[in-house]
User: Which sequence fits this backbone?
């Protein structure tokens, strides 16, 4: 099993609100990762119980700097729902 599927936590206002209201944590993950692999990686890494995993393919924005145009890379986001009572200490500020 590849534990490097989880790249970084994705912290935005919306993801912090989801964490507080619905016990959901958001991660940027590898593009090839599927829901089962993400669930196993989160459970093994943080020692929590995962109830549900939702994935979103995010398309990169077109950006322009003067006359030069470019594109940010596409990436994949996973929203992981944890069992009630479980929490990841990394996000609790401890």
Assistant:
């Amino acid at each position: 099993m590849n534990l490097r599927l989880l790249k970084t936590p994705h912290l935005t206002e919306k993801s912090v609100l989801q964490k507080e209201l619905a016990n959901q944590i958001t991660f940027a993950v590898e593009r090839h990762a599927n829901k089962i692999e993400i669930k196993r990686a989160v459970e093994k890494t943080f020692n929590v119980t995962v109830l549900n995993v939702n994935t979103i393919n995010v398309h990169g924005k077109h950006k322009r700097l003067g006359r030069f145009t470019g594109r940010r890379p596409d990436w994949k986001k996973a929203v992981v729902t944890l069992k009630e009572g479980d929490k990841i200490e990394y996000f609790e500020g401890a």
About this structure: The first strand starts at residue 6 and ends at 9.
